[in-house]
Amino acid sequence: MSHTDLIDLTIISVMTLGFFAFLLSEKVHISSIPILIVLGFLFGPVFGLIPNDQGHTIFNYARVLGLVLILYTEGHNLKWSMIKKHIATIGIMATVGMILTAAVSGFLFSYLFNLPFGAGMLFGTVVAATDPATLIPLFKQNKVDENIKTVIVTESIFNDPLAIVLSTLAIAMVAPHADQAHLIENIAQYTSIYPAGVIYFLYVIISSLALGLGMGVLGYWLIRWLKPGLFPQIFGISIAFGGFLVGEAAQSSGYLVATIIGIVFGNHAILFKKWNEHEGFNKFVDEEMHFNEIISDLASVFIFILFGATVNISVLNETLLKGAIIALGVVFIARPIAALAIVPLKKWNWKEYLFISLEGPRGVVPAALAAIPLNIGFMSHDQTLIYWGDIILSATIMTVLISVLLETLWVKPLSKKLLAPKK
């Protein structure tokens, strides 16, 4: 078969498997993510029905394009009134909490696999983000206190792009020759690598917020001026990818820019209140959101199936037990330690703290980031990074699978036990 035919076969296989995964997910009432990963693994390295080379090729595009669509779509769901109410908790969990998660997870990884902390740092930043693509449907299926739900979901939406920034810092420190590290290396010429990392992190956050707000406002006025009533879906996708490209061109975070644009559109009634918003824009956002959710589901299918299909089965066999231990460490040690950062706020009782600690499944972003160290290793012919990358990919699979399975299965009993209505 030609390369084009193999690509077509891979795409058809992924979409067919995705259909059956969602069907099975509805029947057994668990998240579709572990099903997608397992199907990708079975039809990839086990049965060989998804060609490895073509799987890697498509995955490299799907993880970028898919993430932009998912984050842009989820940004629409963030409501400013609830964000403002819990902004301190959300801010701490999405920054300090995420850094603590990365540090503890990285230490456990380095210790168990007997690797340098550089490898652990890469793994820690890969698994630092929680997953809105799992949490949003999960909380639709299971009733959870609105305040707790807002904190956990909003944290996950913000820590996704921030984790990508953090992983870029880790890559710069471990593989300074990588494309992702150029800006940090340029800053480090005038200072050392650690202050350069802090400067880079602040630059990315501030510039991404400014670009996202600017493009969100521009998009709003373009919609009012052009009135694209017949094609809101095309306009929405265009501005999401446009924001991503502008962010990347500014060496900022294109993912965070796309997320902020989504937040601006989702909160248009508040942000543009003084301009007497009319029903036309509401209709535009509703139609765009319906389409975006479908495309986001399709993006998740490609990310998770190809995530499972690109695993090195021999490395997975060698790291299976340690990978499972690492996954349990992320769930039961790293996340609860990270959540301790909100205790000084004295806003949540111990039961609410425990629920927040035990509901932070890993998903889309770890799946998308997991292959980056391996890809950089291949591109730079760095055997050490290739070796680390294989182990990171396998350990991330176990972390995503175990965290999603556990945290989707226990959400109902935990919410009944820990979040029972007060008498």
Give a structural overview.
- The chain has a single domain, classed as Na+/H+ antiporter like fold.
- The radius of gyration is 21 Å and the shape is globular.
- With 423 residues, it is mainly alpha-helical.
- The protein has helices at 3-28, 32-46, 52-76, 80-85, 87-113, 117-126, 132-141, 146-174, 182-188, 193-226, 232-249, 254-266, 268-271, 279-309, 313-339, 350-358, 364-369, 372-380, 383-409, 411-418.
- It has 20 helices and no strands.
- α3 packs antiparallel against α14 (279-309), α15 packs antiparallel against α16 and α18 (372-380) packs antiparallel against α19.
For the record, the CATH architecture stands as Up-down Bundle
Low-confidence spans: none
Number of domains: 1
Q: Give the beta-strand count.
A: 0
Q: What value does the average pLDDT take?
A: 86
CATH class category: Mainly Alpha
Tell me about the largest β-sheet: none
**Share of helix among residues?**
over 70%
- What series of H and E elements makes up the topology? HHHHHHHHHHHHHHHHHHHH
Main attributes of the structure:
mainly alpha; Na+/H+ antiporter like fold; globular; single chain; 20 helices; 423 residues
Concise summary:
The longest helix is centred in the middle third of the chain and has 34 residues, at 193-226. It contains 20 helices and no strands. 81% of the residues lie in helices and 0% in strands.
